[in-house]
Amino acid sequence: MIQFQFITAFLLIVLGIYAFLAKRNLIKLILALDIIDSGIHLLLISLGYRIELNEVPTAPIYTGYETLKSPMVGPLPQALVLTSIVIGVCVLSLAIALTINAYRHYGTLDVRALRRLRG
Amino acid sequence: MNGEAILPYLIIIPLFGAFSMPIVSLAGRKAREAWAVIISGATLALGSALFYYVWESGKIVLYTLGAKSPLGQGVNFPIRIVWEVDTFGALMVLMVTFVSFMAVIYSLGYMKHDTGLDKYYTLIIILELGMLGIAITGDLFNFYVFLEIMSIASYALVAFRNDTWEGIEAGIKYMFVGSIASSLILLGIALLYGQYGTLTMGYLALKLSQNPTVVGKVALALFIAGLLFKSGASPVHMWLADAHPAAPSSISAMLSGLVIKIGGIYALTRILFSIYGTSISTKTVGWVIIVFACITLIVGNAMAVIQTDMKRLLAYSSVGQIGYILLGIGIGLTAYGSQTGEIALAGAIYHTFNHALMKALLFLIAGVVIHQLGTRNLNELSGLAKTMPKTTFAFLIGAAAIIGMPPLNGFASKWLIYESSAIFNPLLGAIAIIGTAFCTAAYVRVLYTFFGRPSEKVMKAKDPEGTMLWPILILTIAIIVMGLFPWQISDKIMIPAVKTLENQLAYVSTLLGGA
Amino acid sequence: MTCRPRCGSDMGLIVKTSARAIIPLIGIFGAYIVMHGHLTPGGGFQGGATIAGAGILFLVSFGLDEMKKHYNKSLYSALEGIGGLVFLGAAMLGMGVAFFYNILWHNGPFFNGKPGTLLSAGFLPIMNLAVGLKVFTGLISALTAIALYRRWKS
User: Fold this and answer.
1) Total domain count for chain B?
2) For residue A59, is pLDDT > 80?
3) Tally of domains in chain C
4) Contact between C115 and A65 using a beta-carbon 8 Å cutoff
5) Cβ distance of C78 and B26 shorter than 8 Å
């Protein structure tokens, strides 16, 4: 069966890289960074999905209602993605604060105006 | 004193200092400054104790988070996060804690007229914490978390002076390039996890050597791309020339001396030698790194000659010196296991340590000049030697050390790189010496300006006082003292560090052999 | 770039009344996410971000002037620091064995029930509460600082 999750993840990463290279508005560049991160997170989570004993696996938490035969998804990528989402939020908030500052100094949100440092 | 017992305190003490800084700063300005100095001083003491223990005994220190042994219950592969320190890592820890302590003491005097200083001290302690975490970790995802902590703190510190356009522009450019590089590294980690199922460095090395696949090579390419972005190698070095001048000078010293080395060079070396090791064709990857190193050498040193802004000249000179270190690593990888490779790698590690001290000294001196005179333009700074003699003497020592003059510490490390590159391939030796010629031209031009006739602006200047003078003096004395014993340091510290780095088997067996 | 009502004023009667009804519900749901972090998906960061959503709703619907009466910068900074210190203290409780050793689960007095009940899983509930407090105060401080920053024009 076609693995749609991997195709979507790679499509998101390629879309994000295209947006980062071709767009000029600063807010669109920040959104492009976020899309690249979302693509990598989707890739990581879908790598942890494993099918064993022909059963569909459940979330990896012990709730006291399991039987001996219910498998779970791999717990390691879930922890990695959670940490990476937090890091993404930090970078996003710092980027927005700097963009607002740049609008105050330059009067425009065009990234081609940030060219005063050269040489 | 046991190495395993003091290793967690290397992370706990800066974390405690950073979390309690908002509470301490409610008690006033003096309490905040005293707290910052106490925290970084305690970290320096712990770092030197750890380096002495690891160097003296020659063992690799292993520490598991959360249990006594990294192996799981009843299975024989590691499932926990480990911290693993060998001699190279301990040397990096010593370098980071020493230069951070100097930068914190310097900023007591330099940042007196700025506002928002409680955020500044918190961020500088978090920057130090991130770098220490990268230097001691033995697990790939832990490395990524500490890399991001260090990067976010440095983005915020570069844009610290947000009432000038220069800080904001440099901060935005640095942040976009750094975020893309970190995303490339995360993609490499995701591919490695998907193929091999584990992220502990030693166990991953074992699995890679048993089963090398195409996915592993693609992940290696992504790692090299991301880490070369972060260390300022040549086709992507433009952010360095904008970010390092725009930061406050104590932060420039830490950025140029520590962040590009730990985040870029140390991580690259650890991934190439301890994880991939013999399971890739070392000749191909080595030659790729040598090509990038040669381009970086020529471009960095050549662009430094034509600058009129003092800090921008120092930033381009940093790019050039990173080229030397990458040349050493490339030759060490291509000639893996032979005598030439060992000498090249020892030269690279030695030059990392030396360049941290030298570039920190030069940036602190640039900060002193800006603080006293208010300008960075070299055309207005002529004749500084008459009114600020101590500063000019320290600059003379620093510049002579970077060029590679004999009784100072830069000579030994550059000599090792020249020797190994000349034996390996004479064309590389010629390129290295051309790079040094450009570097000499840049610094001699600055010194010629300093020793000229004083202009009107320079007449009003005087030497710095108090807390801004002590770090400059201590770094100058360290450079001179290290320069008096070059071959002892190289034989006793650098060559054993290279031997433990190339000994991938010991790295893996310390991890799997138990706690 | 003009605002039709004055910038810093609220958003009308309908929005204010709905916000008054919804903000406590968001707060309670966020507290549920934080406290049951070891039983259901959730935990410190997710719950803290949800409660910060309630704070942002207050800021947007009631206006900046009303927010300035209830927001105290040094108090929120100190709370953030306390959250971090509680996290570090809980991690250091089992320092005799290792850093981050879960001593409350293996032989502690209080948090070692059956897995699946509320009082289980060692120091995880304490860490969830500390991280939730830190994330909530941090996000509110960041977004209020961004909102206060438009004052360069007026």
Assistant:
1) 1
2) no
3) 1
4) no
5) yes
Q: Which of A66, A73, A86, A91 is the mutation pick for testing C, counting most C CBs within 10 A? A: A86
Instruction: Determine the Cα–Cα distance for residues B273 and B330; give it in Å rounded to an integer.
Output: 11
Q: Nearest CA to CA, how far is A58 from chain C (Å)?
A: 12
The tokens describing A88, both together, are 């993404």
β-pair partners for C115: C117
Cβ distance of A116 and B307 shorter than 8 Å: no
pTM of the complete model: 0.94
* Bridge partners, residue A55, by sequence: A52
Q: Provide, as residue numbers in chain B, all residues whose Cβ is less than 8 Å from the Cβ of C141.
A: none
- In terms of CA atoms, which chain C residue is nearest residue B8? C99
Does the ipTM surpass 0.90? yes
3-state secondary structure (DSSP) of residue A110: strand
Residues of A with CB below 8 A from B150's CB?
none
Flag whether B461 is in a domain: yes
* CB neighbours of residue B145 within 10 Å: 19
Gap from B58 CA to chain A (nearest CA, Å): 33
Say if C112 falls within a structural domain. yes
Q: What is the pLDDT along chain C (154 residues), one digit of tens a residue?
A: 455 556 667 788 899 999 999 999 999 999 999 999 888 888 899 999 999 999 999 999 988 888 888 888 889 999 999 999 999 999 988 888 888 888 888 887 888 777 778 888 888 899 999 999 999 999 999 999 888 876 555 4
Is C74 close to B67, i.e. CB distance below 8 A? no
Instruction: Name the domain count of chain A.
Output: 1
Does position A53 have pLDDT exceeding 80, yes or no?
Answer: no
Owner of token pair 């300008």 = B375
The verdict on residue A119 lying in a domain is no
Which of B240, B342, B225, B351 has the alpha carbon at shortest distance from B289? B225
Q: Domain containing C82: what range?
A: 13-152
Read off the CATH number of the domain in which A12 is found.
1.10.287.3510
Full domain range(s) for residue B328: 283-484
B173 occurs within a structural domain: no
Q: Kindly state the tokens that stand for C106.
A: 């293996």
Confirm whether A77 is domain-assigned.
Answer: yes
Structural domain includes residue C2: no
Q: Which residues of B touch C92 (CB under 8 A)?
A: 12
